[in-house]
From TrEMBL:
Domain Thioredoxin residue range list: 2-126
Name of the protein this chain belongs to: Thioredoxin H-type 9
Keyword Electron transport: yes
One Pfam family matching this protein: Thioredoxin
Gene3D superfamilies named in the record: Glutaredoxin
Keywords: Disulfide bond, Electron transport, Redox-active center, Transport
InterPro entries to which the protein is assigned, alphabetical: Thioredoxin-like_sf (IPR036249), Thioredoxin_CS (IPR017937), Thioredoxin_domain (IPR013766), Thioredoxin_H-type-like (IPR050620)
Superkingdom per UniProt: Eukaryota
Key word Transport present: yes
Length: 132
């Protein structure tokens, strides 16, 4: 049994590479959102599942984007690990990406659509003033 647990955590590491931060508790979610608010960062939350083919397909791209768009906080939520929490977000399909500003949803994308994900990131980073 221990081997499968290890496999799962390794699997999640593949999903959460680059600057993507894996959220495993409601507390860590709250902390990250607080941090994003303080730093005036947009948050993208990818509600995903390890068994989901499209999620696996877009995971490396999501990680790549996290290294390009440093003004955005990229989070990953495993819907199976945080079932109750995911239910509160009304997830109908994985992956679902939520774009949050000050903890409030400003946009959403359902499905592993790379061009659409990039388009939404570009649109949202254009709107947010950069404090550099």
């Amino acid at each position: 049994m221990q081997a499968s647990i290890d496999d799962d955590s390794n699997h999640n590491m593949e999903f959460a590479s680059g600057n993507v931060q894996l959220i495993t508790t409601k507390e860590s979610w709250d902390q990250k959102l607080e941090q994003a608010k303080r730093d005036s960062k947009i948050v993208i939350a990818n509600f995903s599942a390890t068994w989901c083919g499209p999620c696996k397909m877009i995971a490396p791209y999501y990680s790549e984007l996290s290294e390009k768009y440093l003004s955005i906080m990229f989070l990953l939520v495993d819907v199976d690990e945080l079932t109750d929490f995911s239910t509160t977000w009304d997830i109908k399909a994985t992956p679902t990406f939520f774009f949050l500003k000050d903890g409030i949803e400003v946009d959403k994308l359902v499905g592993a659509n790379k061009p659409e994900l990039l388009k939404k990131i570009v649109a949202i980073t254009d709107v947010v003033p950069h404090n550099q």
